[in-house]
Amino acid sequence: MTQKNTLASPLFVGIDGGGSTCRARLTDVKGHVLGEGKARSANWRLGLEPVKAEIITATQAALQQAGLEKMPLSALHVGMGLAGWVLTKDRTTIQPIKDLFASCIVSNDAYIACLGVHQGQYGGIVIVGTGSCAQIIAPEESRTFGGWGFTLGDQASGAFLGHQTVRLTLLALDTMIPASDLTDAIAASFEWCPEHCLTWSLTAKPADYARFAPLVFQYAAQNDPHALALMTSATADLVAMIKVLQAYNTGRIALLGGLAKAYEPYLPSHLLASLQKPAGNALDGALLMARKQILV
Amino acid sequence: MTQKNTLASPLFVGIDGGGSTCRARLTDVKGHVLGEGKARSANWRLGLEPVKAEIITATQAALQQAGLEKMPLSALHVGMGLAGWVLTKDRTTIQPIKDLFASCIVSNDAYIACLGVHQGQYGGIVIVGTGSCAQIIAPEESRTFGGWGFTLGDQASGAFLGHQTVRLTLLALDTMIPASDLTDAIAASFEWCPEHCLTWSLTAKPADYARFAPLVFQYAAQNDPHALALMTSATADLVAMIKVLQAYNTGRIALLGGLAKAYEPYLPSHLLASLQKPAGNALDGALLMARKQILV
Fold first, then answer.
1. Does residue A155 share a domain with residue A270?
2. Is A9 exposed, middle or buried (0-12, 13-18, 19+ CB in 10 A)?
3. From the list A148, A151, A240, which residue is nearest B177 (CB)?
4. Of the partner residues B167, B195, B240, the one whose CB lies closest to the CB of residue A88
5. ipTM over 0.90
6. How far apart are CA B125 and CA B250, in angstroms?
7. CATH number of residue B17's parent domain
8. Based on the domain organization, do B214 and B113 belong to the same domain?
């Protein structure tokens, strides 16, 4: 017999559909965590069917952990944020996923992170990891800045730093710019062979470029001229992202993502001092959205 | 009856396998042009079979124009330069194309252009069009610099300028940098909509980016700050390509490609004055290679 979930005791699921992992968290009406589940990437750009499958997998895993494996998805109130969910048409093409659930509100992964980090209060976040983007939730508007991907955006991100570094390495191997310890290290990883570099690039994904980013920070700390120049320009891009959020005067801005800590020494100290520690995460934000639909 | 070609009266074909067109030129032993033919791109990265087909099409068209349509390909002495012919393994995988002809020597398109431009004498060229690369033919060595493609190379090229401009436009639309007349012009072409930009980028080829390059030159001439900054950095990249060739002291360097003229006002005048006018083209170079095989 299928268990019945009613508005009297609704169940909520928060889903964080990231670029590498899709995570789901199930809570009761009091916010107690009943179960959690995981699946592979639910980046919206992968297409409806794969994303739908990962969302179902992660949600069913959370139900199972809660001992509620017989609960139908159609009984759940869901809030989700998906990486790559940025186009206007996405709002309609996602309908088959929304139809799985009793209620479902969708946004992008930056929005739920911002919501969670500031526990539903107004504020902004800059995420700088493999990619980069900024999000504000303010009385005037909620808006994502950047997030246009590796080809056209992702300034200051790990993929951006790695990409620039590989470009510089090829210029150095071609003796068109001076080599440095940084370009030597990258060149060595390609056995000093531009052909290897080219072959690698034919299938390299943003995450593959981002793997070189730690080297940029490492050599910048040793005053490598190419690394320092890259850090100067990337930090300026990051500062521009923070400043666009400061203009909203929410008084709450947090810097998140795998490279947030590494950038701290490069940020102007007054800017760094103005940043807040995250009070929650993207799953918290997704659950806030889920609850807001039916409990206002 | 098939006509017979002998070493006593050899026929030569020069083939310029470019990124958009494959051209063939047939000459007799005295260098008289007997016929010319054209086909689609013979960029080596398209793969053996399509490139082979275009080379055959262009060559047969040249034979036909010469009234020699019954001449077998196996009677012809061929020199060819192919775009994208850069990897060591290309030297063996191209064998089925070489086997079509009585003799066939292959290089990349930059090499035959350099050979033709300087009529077989030592010298160097920088090609700056949709892509970019440099080539030297010198006593010490013959070498291509750059030519690593849109993702990792092509500095100062039209694709590079266009790409940087679209990136800047998105930053301006996101209010992270000031807009300018240049970014406004690009933004207008995308109906001021970052989403259109993103959708376009999903299928945009280097040539699509390069279409924006003329706008960069146009607005730089009107002192647009973003256009000027781009021109400063791209010109520095172009100068580095010229200087790496000057180090060989051949005394002959030419600047070629669709953007060569547009860059002239930005080059240091002593550098510009040192450049030579091309004395021939890539087909001339390919024919020089073809002849060299059997007439030393």
1. yes
2. exposed
3. A240
4. B195
5. no
6. 11
7. 3.30.420.40
8. no
Closest CA to A81 of A114, A118, A48, A40: A114
Subunit contact A148:B194, Cβ cutoff 8 A: yes
Does B72 contact A at CB distance below 8 Å? no
**A199 lies within 8 A of chain B by CB:** yes
Q: Tell me, yes or no, whether A2 lies in a domain.
A: no
Mind listing the pLDDT tens digit of every residue in chain B (296 residues)? Answer: 344 444 468 999 999 998 779 999 999 999 999 999 999 989 898 899 999 999 999 999 999 999 999 999 999 999 999 988 888 888 999 999 999 999 999 999 999 999 999 999 999 999 999 889 999 999 999 999 998 888 999 999 999 999 999 999 999 999 999 999 999 999 999 999 999 999 899 899 998 999 999 999 999 999 999 999 999 999 999 999 999 999 999 999 999 999 999 999 999 999 999 999 999 999 999 999 999 887 75
B44, B133, B151: best to mutate for the A interface, most A CBs within 10 A: B151
Residue A114, pLDDT above cutoff 70: yes
Helix axes A109-117, A282-294, angle to 10 degrees: 90
Angle, helix B225-246 to helix B213-221, in steps of 10 degrees:
110
Q: Give the best residue of A177, A198, A238 to mutate against chain B (max B CB count within 10 A).
A: A198
B153 CB within 8 Å of a chain A CB? yes
Q: Say yes or no: A184 and A269 in one domain.
A: yes
Structural domain count, chain A: 2
Range(s) of the domain holding residue A253: 150-274
Size of interface A-B (CB pairs under 8 A): 80
Question: Can you give the C-alpha Rg of chain A in angstroms?
Answer: 21
